[in-house]
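User: Hey, my collaborator sent me this sequence without any context and asked if I could get a structure. I don't really work with proteins. Can you help?
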Amino acid sequence: MSKQKIQISPLQLTFLSITMVVSTADIFTPSFVAQDAKRDSWLSAILASLAMIPVLLIQLGLYKQYKGKCLTEICIEIAGNFPGRIIAFLYSFYFIFVAIGAAVSLTIVLNITFLPLTPPWVIVVVSILVAMYGVYSGLEVIARVNEILLPAGMGALVFLLILNIGEYDFNYFRPVFEQGILQPIRGAVVIFGYLCETVGLLQMFHLVSKQEKVNLAAFIGLLITGSAMLAGTLIYAVFGPLTEIFVIPALEMARFSSIGKYIQNLDVLILAIWITGIYVKLMIYTYSGTYAMSVIFGLKNYKYVVLPVGFFICGVTISGLETIITELDFMHYIVPVYAIFMAVIIPGVLLLISKIIKRRKGEEPQK
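Assistant: No problem. I've predicted the 3D structure and written it out in structure-token form, which is a compact way to encode the shape of the chain:
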């Protein structure tokens, strides 16, 4: 595949890393974490963010060994032509899988809350068409759009949190470790799994214009994302144990909020944030998946596979909406484990193999 003349700034990389997680994690995750960690939800967010530090170091270490290459190219370089392409295909499938999850989240939110009479397939088709247009436009366009939308979205979320500052009851977080250490760890695994979705950044590191700032951009993204996940646990300080039974706790918090007597129904505001963020996430992972496939099959341009991948995402998303409860359980218990395997286990093994190979060849690992 020919190298594309694409460049994004370190700031755009940071913004993309935030959107890759926060756009969907703040929808259902507060409920999932409350079910597992209960009063210790805030501890789960801290533990998960700390656990991401060594994971990010592994991913950055792997990239440093093969600067200028994307994740799929690194897999082929380390594992060899055939095994490497199989591993690369696993990543391509994973990126498409995350894109499907984003489409499912968007459809559930719209269908349950504001468009209950609209057939879900209509929402899915429109969403996929918009995402495909963004993917065709390229990563630079996606990054520029995200650079505009993310600050507005984060500002709105901060505004919502500040608006409810008088409603927080931090006694809901006491006593700490009421049910032992296992509960917050279970909650941390859920958050950690969603944070691990940033493994998609390995597809973009080589496109950053200032390579010396890749590390800083990635860690700033982790810091902001971890802070956003921690802020999301404040929902428990408003609703307490009720957070566990809400399907979309953040939306309930927005509905609970008001400015005086006349400005209410702020759920429209948070819905607008989610829609824009999820669309960008859908574009990011569809782009990553199609780009990976173009490398695997030696295509000259990733755009050749955007259309079939879009049809695939559309079909799987529609078929997966038949039972929402099953879908939510899948997001709660399966998705985090899958993400951890793809973001921690495989990159860790690849980094270890890379160091062994270079040591046998007498090469010094790049620093």
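In plain terms: Residues 324-360 form the longest helix (37 residues). You can pass these tokens on to your collaborator as they are.
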